[in-house]
Design a protein that fits this description.
The complex is a heterotrimer of chains A (129), B (263) and C (385).
Chain A lengths: L3 H15 L1 H5 L14 H6 L6 H22 L3 E3 L5 E3 L2 H8 L3 H11 L19
Chain B lengths: L1 H29 L8 E3 L10 E6 L6 H14 L15 E4 L1 H4 L10 H5 L2 E4 L7 H5 L5 E3 L6 E3 L9 H5 L6 E2 L25 E2 L5 H4 L6 H5 L4 E5 L6 H8 L2 E2 L11 E4 L1
Parallel strand pairs in B: 2-11
Antiparallel strand pairs in B: 2-9, 3-4, 5-6, 7-8, 10-11
Chain C lengths: L9 H27 L14 H15 L1 H9 L9 H22 L8 H4 L6 H29 L7 H24 L12 H27 L6 H32 L2 H11 L9 H19 L1 H5 L1 H28 L14 H33 L1
Classes of the chains: A mainly alpha (129), B alpha+beta (263), C mainly alpha (385).
């Protein structure tokens, strides 16, 4: 067992490389993104659910929507205020939030998540850029 | 030394497996069936049935010309791409010859008019769908609420077992990005496209049924295609079935297709 | 024991480096497939399974073939096979890993492969196939590794292994039966819808697997200090002789049923493969070559003088491997899809990238087999040498 120094050296190198992103980025935290609301979204005041819920749970809610619409043929969402919505990412969410780049993408990029929704769902249902 | 090191590595390995499984377990466990204070329901306008079915009156669809608008309506509505390479073709509804639509059902010296008519073929939304039996992830399934054989594009792994299982050749696979075969200007913005690597097929226009409209092909057919609930004796399909002699594709396979043909 | 695989001569390392280069090249092509989609293959709407699934099917057979040494040794106490069971088990491991890789490269959305476990669907044969293939892989890895390690340490293998070894025998049969059920339970595919498909798969597996094992044994004898043994090779030769005869017999049964009953749906596929259908005949020369090779294999293995001569036996084994590969790898899958359910003919041939990716997977298998065999032979040389 005279390989000690090589093992230790290897371990140090490994730990160093493995933690590279952390110490390389120390003190350089990107500012939290600000999402932009469209006029239509501002006018509506509240989303399908309270803003706090939407901030943290929109992905789970969308997951429920897609499951229910595709698999159970249930298409309408009624929130606590009794308001009814069509459960559709393109036709409901993006109808209001038609500024995907400033609304969806900013946060997703910041959090480094890359949802593949837009491979199939149109990101500008109104057809304007 | 030797054995303790090995044991350490084994334990570390087991721990690593355990840790990596943890987030997955948590994610599954935490997914809420119903979040706080909301309810889900079927739309008020939605057309409902126990088992949707279609009757195609082939007597009224005499030429390619009569079929084209129906196929066009379907493929436009659902953003079905058009590829020139035959291998990558995607079709939800298309026309074919009698002996292709009904192999094994051909007769000798048939009425030329009947034999040379174009026949529309599409997913039969079988009552015993072999594709549903084959799918390893329930990505294709028969919807309890209305008997439509559906595709869950979010779940499909693209194994194509359903394509081997379908005895009607009704399924297409996205061999490449469907966007390559779509004209950006003509995309129907209210209906999703698909991604490469998943299987797709006719969905009996469930997205239209949900808002009270009949399927696009039926609407474009000017009455040659009838649509309704197979279990309702008063539906227009049941009327048509009572009053006409109809055939189905490969009934001997026991799949119970729900698309009927008046010949 | 992996340390044994780290000591080798120059040709060993050259071979491994060569395999790695092939794998690397194939991986680049796989990245292309990931990026573009399965459109870079020769598959189509009508022939929706191709070379990948065909090779998968063939290799399931090779994996199941390993049981032909495990069964006589452990069930019939045929001592001679004690020397070669490990070779059968490790061959199964390498073949199964290739099988799983072929499934993965065939998926349109490989990143979702785990959906098979997230949404388990017992009515799908593919679900069961995933279960038995992974199960058999695990069994062979655990049994092979532990028995070999016990041998190295000069002790009897652990008691708890015995039931697992017995379990491996029905498992071997199950992997190829379930794989046959993938095809034979589909309505509207006349070529596959035959109860004899699973027995036919097994018979070709029990011919191809042991044939490959014989060739590997001969290679090992010529290149290492370990001799798998003349008796062992001869016994395997007899297994091959029976299995290839049964395989051809089963095929002739199919031909009889299809043509005597005269049902077009069953005849058309066989016609397409052997004489062409409506002018489409891409596979005709291949299928007759396959028949010729299997016939040659029968003549050389059944005839005692040619079976006992290891040179002619090797020729027979190579012929059988080639013949069954064409039969299963080219004919079986394409044959079932042509003509399609609408009675149209779309022919299939694998594309260049598809072949490169396939070769890459075989290279991965060869790499795994080399390392495992290096270990096994290292142990054998230590203990027998």
């Amino acid at each position: 067992m005279n390989d000690k120094k090589w093992i230790v050296l290897g371990l140090i190198l490994f730990v160093g490389l493995f933690s590279f992103p952390f110490w390389f980025n120390v003190g350089k935290a990107a500012p939290a993104p600000e999402v932009v609301l469209t006029e239509q979204a501002k006018a509506a005041k509240e989303c399908v659910m309270p803003t706090d819920f939407m901030k943290t749970e929109h992905m789970q809610l969308l997951d429920v929507w897609r499951l229910k619409v595709v698999r159970d043929g249930v298409s309408q969402f009624v929130n606590a205020d009794g308001k009814e919505f069509d459960m559709s990412l393109s036709n409901t969410c993006l109808d209001c939030h038609s500024n995907k780049a400033e609304f969806c993408d900013r946060c997703h990029n910041y959090a480094s998540v890359n949802p593949y929704c837009w491979d199939c769902h149109i990101d500008n249902p109104k057809g304007d850029k | 030394m030797e054995s303790s090191r090995r044991r350490f590595i084994k334990m570390a390995g087991i721990a690593a497996v355990g840790l990596s499984a943890h987030p997955a377990i948590k994610a599954v466990a935490a997914a809420p069936e119903h979040g706080p204070q909301y309810t889900l329901k079927t739309g008020d306008q939605a057309l409902q049935a126990k088992q949707w079915a279609m009757v195609i009156d082939t007597r009224r669809l005499k030429t390619d010309h009569d079929l084209e608008p129906l196929i066009e309506a379907c493929h436009k509505t659902h953003n079905v791409p058009h590829f020139t390479e035959k291998n990558h073709e995607i079709k939800w509804i298309w026309e074919t010859h009698f002996h292709n639509a009904f192999p094994g059902n051909t007769s000798n010296y048939m009425s030329e008019e009947v034999e040379h008519r174009p026949y529309l073929v599409l997913c039969n939304h079988c009552q015993n769908p072999p594709c549903v039996r084959a799918c390893p992830t329930k990505a294709t399934f028969k919807r309890d609420s209305d008997g439509v054989v559906m595709m869950d594009m979010h779940r499909c792994i693209g194994c194509r077992f359903c394509m081997a299982a379908c005895p009607y050749g009704s399924r297409s696979f996205n061999f490449k990005d469907p966007l390559l075969g779509l004209n950006e200007k003509e995309i129907n913005l209210t209906f999703p496209r698909r991604m490469k690597g998943v299987v797709e097929k006719c969905n009996f226009c469930v997205e239209r049924l949900a808002v009270g409209q009949r399927p696009a092909c039926v609407e474009a057919s000017g009455g040659a295609l009838l649509f309704g609930d197979l279990t309702d004796p008063d539906s227009e399909v049941r009327h048509a079935l009572r009053e006409n002699f109809t055939i189905r594709r490969k009934p001997s396979l026991g799949t119970e297709p729900c698309v009927y043909y008046i010949v | 024991m992996l340390d044994l695989a780290l000591k080798g001569n120059k040709s060993y390392w050259t071979w491994l480096a060569g395999l790695t280069a092939v794998i690397g090249t194939a991986f680049i092509f796989y990245l292309w497939q990931l990026q573009f989609g399965l459109g870079i293959t020769g598959m189509s709407r009508d022939v929706s399974w191709g070379f990948y699934i065909a090779n998968f099917t063939y290799l399931v057979g090779v994996a199941a073939g390993g049981v032909m040494v495990v069964l006589p040794y452990y069930l019939h106490d045929y001592k001679a096979y004690g020397k070669v069971t490990i070779l059968g088990e490790f061959l199964a491991v390498a073949a199964l890993i290739m099988c799983l890789l072929f499934i993965v490269v065939d998926l349109g959305q490989p990143s979702r492969a785990m959906n098979v476990l997230l949404y388990p669907t017992p009515n799908s044969v593919l679900f069961w196939d995933a279960m038995v293939l992974n199960g058999y892989l695990l069994i062979n890895l655990v049994v092979g590794w532990n028995v070999l390690e016990a041998e190295r340490n000069g002790v009897h293998y652990q008691k708890w292994l015995k039931p697992i070894i017995y379990l491996s025998i029905p498992f071997a049969v199950s992997i190829h039966t379930v794989t046959a059920f993938l095809y034979s339970g589909l309505p509207g595919r006349g070529f596959w819808m035959t109860a004899i498909l699973a027995p036919r798969f097994l018979s070709s597996a029990f011919a191809a697997g042991p044939s490959l094992l014989i060739l590997l044994c001969l290679f090992i004898r010529n290149t290492t200090k370990f001799d798998p043994g003349k008796e062992q090779i001869q016994s395997l030769g007899k297994t091959v002789a029976y299995a290839i005869c049964i395989n051809v017999f089963f095929f002739l049964c199919e031909v009889f049923v299809a043509f005597y009953s005269n049902i077009p749906e069953h005849m058309d596929h066989i016609k397409y493969l052997f004489v062409g259908f409506h002018g489409h005949n891409a596979l005709v020369p291949w299928m007759w070559t396959s028949m010729g090779l299997m016939a040659l294999g029968i003549i050389l293995t059944v005839n005692p003088s040619t079976r006992k001569n290891e040179t002619t036996l090797a020729v027979a084994c190579a012929a059988i491997i080639g013949g069954t590969w064409i039969d299963k790898g080219l004919g079986m899958i394409s044959g079932g899809f042509v003509p399609n359910p609408l009675h149209e003919v779309t022919e299939y041939a694998p594309s260049g990238p598809e072949i490169v990716i396939t070769v890459g997977i075989y290279a991965i298998g060869a790499l795994i087999l080399t390392v495992l065999y290096k270990m096994a032979i290292g142990v054998k040389e230590e203990t027998h040498g």
